Every structure is written in C-alpha cells, then in structure tokens.
Amino acid sequence: MIKGLSSLYYRELRLMSRNLWATFIPLITSLLYLFLFGLGIGGMMGEEISFNGENVDYILFLAPGVIAMGIISIAQNAGWTLWNDRDRGMLEELLSCPVSRSAYIMVKILSTLTFSFVQVFLVLVIGLPILKGQFFVTNIYLILLSTLLGGVCFCSLFIPFMSRIRSSNLLVAIVTLIFLPIMLCSSMFYPLESAPYLFKIVAYLNPMTYTVDILRAGLIGSLNQEILLEILVLFIFTIALFAASVISLRKVRI
Amino acid sequence: MPAIECINLTKRFSDLIAVDHVNFEVEEGEIFGLLGPNGAGKTTTVRMLTTVISPTEGTAIVGGFDIRKRPDKVREKIGVVLQKVALDWWSPVYDNLDTYGRIYNIPKKERKRKIEWLLKEFGLEEKRNETIELLSGGLQRRVQVAKAFIRHPAILFLDEPTLGLDPQSRRKTWDFILDSSKAGQTIVLSTNYMDEAEYLCDRIGIIDHGKIIALDTPESLKSGIGGDDIIEMNVDGNLDSLKFEISKLDYVNGVSGTSNLSVQVNNADETLIELSQYVVKMGGRIRNVSVRKPTLEDVFIKLTGRVIRE
C-alpha cells in the first residue's frame, strides 16, 4: 500500500464534496456537448457519417469523443487542484507528512478516474438513451479500459505543467495550447480515414486518438487487431507519461 | 544520540547558496532556535530537515534517520508548521484539522477528542464550521498552528509559528511549545522575533547569509557581547567619531549603533555619569539616555553590524 493513499484520497473527495459545482459542471458539460453537437452539428452533417466503410449514426460516432473530452477536462481539473495545493503551500505541507509523492500523484489520478467513470455512466446510461431511445454498448470492457488508460494518461500529462509553472496566467495559456490540438488533431469529432496525410501523422502521435478509437470500438465497433494495437500504443503512452509525471513531481522545486 | 545532527548541510539555488555547510546538533527534548533575518536561510534549513527539499551537499540525521536515504522514516518522526498558511481553503476549520489527523492515522475517537480540545484552546470553537477562506488572516494562522498539536511527534519544526498572530494566540502558542517540550518533544523553532527566541529556546543558532554565525544558550550569547548593561544614548554630533573615541575607554566593552549609540559596559550604575561627561567633552549633545540589559538583537548587531530586521 502506498503510504498516505487512502487519507489523501479521502481529502480529495472531501474537497470535491465541498465544491460540488466545480465537480458537477464538467460532468454536465459532457452531456451538454453531446446534445448540442449531436443535434446541432450532426444535423448539419446529416444523420449519418461514414466510418470504417459503414454508415454510422453521427451521435453514436460523436459520443466516444464527448466522453474523451470529459476525461481530459476532468484530468485538467485534477491538475488545477495540484496547482492550488502548491500555490497555497499544501503540497509542501503534505510532502512533509508521511505521504509519498507517488501517493499524491496516484490520488490525483484516482480522482480523475472516479469522475471519468461517473461521466461515462452519465453519457451512456442517460445521455444516449435520451437522444436515441435505446442503450448502446457493444464492449463495455473496452469503454472501461479506455477510460482507465485515458484518465491516467491525461492526468499524468498535466501534472508536470501544473507542478512547475507558478504563474496562473502562463499556465492557462499553456493548458489552452495543449488542450486544443489534443482535441482537434484526433479522431474525436471526425473520422481520420479521409484526413490529410500530415494531419493523420499528428493524430496518431496523439493519445487522444487511441482513447477515442478504443471507446468507439466499445460503443459501435468491436475488438479487432487494429484496436488491440491501439490499446498497446495507449498503454505505452500512459506508462511513459505517468513515469514523466512522477519524475517531474520528484524534481519539482516547491 | 542527538535528535538532529546537521553535517555540512548545504543548499544551492543556481548561483545562490541559501544554506552554506551548516553543522549543528539538537539534543532530545531541547527547544532549539534558528534566529536570523529574512532570507538568512532559516526556512531552507527547515525545508531540508523536513525532507521537502533535498540538500545539494551534506546531510542531516533527523530522529535517527538520514534525510537523504530515509526521508519516509524521517517524516514519521516529525511534525511541521510552515511559515505559509497551508490549509484547504474551501474546507471548514474542523475538516482541516480532521484531514491532518487522518494523514497521521490518528484513531477516530482520539482525533475527535484532540480536535475539540484544540478548537477550545485556540479559541476556534465558534469558527469550527466556517471555511478557511472566510476567516481573517490571524484566525487562519491559528488553525495552522493548532494543526501541529493534533499529534505529538518526536520532533516538531515550527517555521515562524507566531507570524501574524495576535498577542493572546502568540502567548498560547508559546505555552503549547513549552508544554510539548516538557513532555519530551524536541522542537526546532525558526523565528526572527528575538523575544520569542529568548523566551522559548534552550539554545539558539544565529543564522546569516546561510551560515550559523553563533550558537549557544541565550544567556551565553548575550554575555558574549561584553558587559551586563547597555547604555543607549540619543546623541547629536559625529557618531562615527564618538564611537571611535568611546571605544577607547577602558570600562567600555563595545560600541554599536547607527542612529543611537549603544555602549556595552559591565556596570551602568558606575559608569553612566562618567560616560555622559565624556560624550559631552567630545562634542556630543545628549538628547536622552537609557540603560537596559543586552538582547539577542545586540548579539546580532555585534556579529553582523546590522539589525535583524534590515
């Protein structure tokens, strides 16, 4: 057991329960995006979209993207709580307690995962059934796996920035700079099949593409060799970014 | 075995040497003060000893464990009150204390009892459900200090614990520190309040520019400046010239001061009149005179030529 994990996780949940709006808004935002994008842009693009050679309902195509967007937003929020802890001296105090830096990172990841899974539940069990009148999931384990890997991956991505940059203005600018290409240069909103070559290269260097693809396979596709490869790539991304976040927090000047 | 042993403890930040090959020991049950001006290296020393940052060079043994090799074991032995108020901003007072108790695995019943006691002792009972962000700076500071006493670690580090506290809370904190010491706790107190260091500490290390420049009991430090009394003179005239002339007198142990003359003598009763006459003879015009006992400020001035709050 990593020292201090349970007490830190309790603290995190307690902080979130004291700040319910900040916790709930990202969850509601996903549903909002699903309705707005699904009904608005879906309407403009037509009811169906060509995906893997088949015509697919655009809302079903979009739902995994919305879930992934929710995951990265929740991860970003967890990163901001780290920045706050550092800014207010809590990080320094916690690190002088019998609490390891790994436990601190793990708790940020655990809270990201907790709310990511709640968000998956909201989209799949409430959002889509309201929009489409039925429940869609072909492989729930792929959805859970992608949420798990994506949550760890994106939370780890934000930790080095959130733990090092002291200026909140600069941090907002950098987070925005990271956030937009991650979402837009991926398969989040459109299929990559017909994308330009360079765009495809960037998209396949982006862990968001794999997160969305695996989620999509869980919702409207199936587990095949390509998805297996994507799981492997996302797993490697996740391990690398997690290691980078641990090293970063270990070396951070508090 | 000492509770703390610093061995060439050094911290560099780029070109700045914040702590420069510091060596000292703190005995078990002792209240040890680190006294120095802002930026002297007190907080950096405390941060290294509490394992928050690593030394660039040297090490320290805290509670029997090397801060470099076993920081996890060190953390189990220590408690810390930081200079900065470190609290969960949007949580109530009670939750802040409870979270801290949980981190140290204090059983629920004991935790509750301790929190109730601390709320009462620090006058926070009525504020127990208020969120930290709504409290005044002084009350936030009280919560921060109260947190340190929720448990009884072998070694307690207090970094400017009374900064921003009202006199009553300050006195209460002092009582807590003395009680904890009586109960066997080793305490390292970093402060730039001379009266605090003098009142609480068994020994004091005076730190300046990252180096310990003197280390002894408050009494020995003060007696080391030469003389039992200090005659303070507010004088019009050429102070540098007067200082030079006065320092030649055989009953004068030392002269300092930038706007006033502080003259160290063994017995002010016997020398005051003679000294005053000499100052007048040397062209000085005395506006007022007072006699006082030496303080740690005088020690610092003698060692560095500066006042501690410069």
| Helical segment count of chain B | 11
Give the spatial strand order of the biggest sheet of chain A. 1-2
Using DSSP, what is the number of strands of chain B?
A: 14
- Beta-strand residue percentage of chain A: under 5%
Corresponding CATH architecture of the largest domain in chain B: 3-Layer(aba) Sandwich
- Show unreliable segments of chain B: none
N-to-C CA distance of chain A: 25 Å
> What summary fits the major beta sheet of chain B?
6 strands, mixed
Give the tally of structural domains of chain A. Answer: 1
Order of helices and strands of chain A: HHEEHHHHHHHH
* Rg for CA atoms of chain A: 18 Å
Number of strands of chain A: 2
Number of domains as seen in the coordinates of chain B? 2
The CATH superfamily of the largest domain in chain B turns out to be P-loop containing nucleotide triphosphate hydrolases
Proportion of beta-strand residues of chain B? 25-35%
Uncertain residue ranges of chain A: none
**SSE order of chain B:** EEEHEEHEHHHEHEHEEHEHEEHEH
CATH third-tier fold name of the largest domain in chain B: Rossmann fold
Q: What is the gyration radius of chain B calculated from CA atoms?
A: 23 Å
Sequence of strands across the biggest β-sheet of chain B: 6-7-8-3-9-10
Assembly type of the chains comes to heterodimer
